[in-house]
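User: Study the fold:
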Amino acid sequence: MSRIKLLLAALPIVGSLLTLAMLLAISTQPGDAAARRLDLALRQANELAPRIVSLNAESLAGAGLTDLAAAITELDGAFAERLDLANEAFATLYPENPAAGTQARQLVSRWFDAIDIGAGDAASAEALRSDFAAVNATAAVFRTRTDAVRRAHARWQRLDRFVESESRGLVGDLRSRGADDEADRIFGAVQQLRERLSRTIAVRPAEADQIVSAMAQSVVLADPDEASRLRGLVAAMRDLRPSRGALRDAEEALADSPLPGLLTGLREQVAAGLLQRSSTIGDARVLLNVYTASLLLVLVYFGLRLRGSYAELGRSYEQLEVRVEERTRDLVRANEELKESQVQLVQAEKMSSLGQLVAGVMHEINTPLMYVRSNVDTCADNITALAEGFSPAVELASALRQGRTDKATLQQHLLAMKKGIDPEEIDLSLEEITQLTIDTQEGLEQISELVQSLKDFSRLDRADEDRFDVREGLEKTLTITRNLLKYGVEVVKDFGDVPRILCAPSRLNQVFINMVTNAVQAMDGEGRLELATRDLGDAVQVVISDTGCGIPPEHLSKITDPFFTTKPVGEGTGLGMSIVRQIIDEHGGELDIASEVGVGTVMTVTLPVERAPRDSAEDFPAEEAA
C-alpha cells in the first residue's frame, strides 16, 4: 500500500518534469542561423535568376552585347554560390538521417503544433526536400543553357570581330591603291549585313546569303593575296547569320526556363515553414515562462511548509550540543590535516609553474644553442678546408726556413700554391667564418641573457627581503615567459618611473608570472598584453591587462578563492590566483580585477613602498613550509 502511495505521489512530479522537458526541447531548438542563411540564400538566388534571363532579353535588342559573356559568367557564379549555400543550410535544418535527439525534438514540435488551433499548415520536410531536388535539377539545366549562351555568344563575337577587322583592313588596302569602288562594295555589304543581324527580328537566311553573294560577285580582285582575304571574309560573313541565329535560340531557351518560378514557390514554402517554426518556438517559450513561474509558486508553498519544521528542529538543538563538542575535537584534527594538504597543493602549484618555466626556458635555450653548434661545425669545416688549401704555402715557408732556396724547389712550391690556393674561395671562407662567428656570439649572448634573467628571477642569491624595482621583475618575467608570448601575443610596455619597494622579490616574481601566464592562457596565445607601472607616492601600482576571453561576472568574486578554477579537469589546481592574493595581502597591498567577457581583463596590483619587516617565518606559513 505504501508503494502505491509513493507511486501516486511521484506521478505529478514525473509529469511536471516531462512537461518541462518538452517545453525546453521546443524552445531551445538549434538552427536559427541556418534558417536565416537558407532564407537569405533563396531570396538572393530568386533575384539572380531573373536578372540572368533579363540580361539575355536585353542582348536580343543588341544592348550590352559586348559584355554579355562576362556579365553572364559573373551572375551565374553568384547564382551557383547562393544555391550551394541554400542547399547547405537546408541540409542542416532538414537532415535526411537526423539524430535521435533531433527526431525527438521534431516529434514534440509536431505534437505541439497539432494541439495549437492557430498553427498553419506548413510543408513537410519530405515535400520541401522534393521541391529542393526539383529546383536543383532545373538549375542544372538552367546553367547548361547559360553555358550554351556563353559559347554561342563567343562564336558570334569572334566571327563578328573577324569580319569587322578583316573588312576594315581589306577596304583600307584597296583604298590605298585606288580601288575605291571595290572598297565601297565590301564596306557597304559588311555594314548592311551586320546592321541587319543586330536587329531584334531574325534575318531570313536567303536575305543574308543574297547580301554576301552580291558582294562576292560584284567584287573581283586581281591580287591573289587580296582575293584570298576576300574569300575568307565571304566565308566568315556566311557564318555570321547561323551563329547569330544559334545565339538567339540559346537565349530564348534560357528565357523559357521555369527556374525563376520554381525558386519563387520554394522560397514561399520555406518562408512559411520558418515562420511557423519561429511561432512554435515563441509560443513554447511563453508557456515555459508561465510553467516556470507556476513551479516557483509550488516551491514557495513547500518552503512555507518547511519553515514550520524549523521549530521542531530547534527543539533538537540542546541534544546536539554534546555531539557538536565531540565533533569539534574531530574537526580540529581534520583541520590540521587539511593545512598539511594545503601546503602540498601550494607546492604542487609551484611545481606546475616551475614546469612551465623549465619547458619554455629549455625551448628558448635550445634554439640559439642549436644554431651556435651548427655555426661552430661549419666554422670547423671551413678552417679545415683553409688549412688544406694553405698547406703548399706552409711547405714553402718550411723550405725557406731550411735554406732550400734553389730555383727548382721554389718553382715547385709556387706551382703547388697556384693550384691549391683559390683567392676567391679563401675570401668566401673567411667571410663565412666571420659572419658565423658574429651569429655565434649573438646566440651565446641570448643564452647568457636568459640564464641571467632566470637567476635574477629566482633571487636565490639575495635576502628574502630587499629593495626591488617592479619594472625589473616584469622585464625578467617577460624574458622567462618569452616562449608563451612569441606566437601571436603583442606585448605593450608602459613603464613609468617608480621607486624601489621593500618586499620579497622572489614572491613578487611569482605574482607576476602567475598573472602573465593567466593572461596569455585567457587570450589562447593570441592578443594584446599590456604592462604598466605607476608611482602613487607612498605606493607603486602595477597594471596587467589582456584582450582575452574575460571572466564572467558570476566568477569574478570567486577568482581568488582557493581551488576555484575555470580550466578543464587536470589543467590547474585552482591555487594560482589564490597564491597571488595571499602574497599581495602579506605585503600589505591591494588586488583589483576588472573584466568583461569577450573584451579582456585588467588586473591592478598596488604595493606600498615601505612595509613592516618580517619578524619570523610565520608571515609566509604555507609556502615557506612548502
Summary: Confidence is low (pLDDT under 50) at residues 57-65, 459-463, 615-626. Strands lie at 466-468, 489-495, 501-503, 527-535, 539-546, 590-596, 600-608. The longest helix spans residues 317-389.
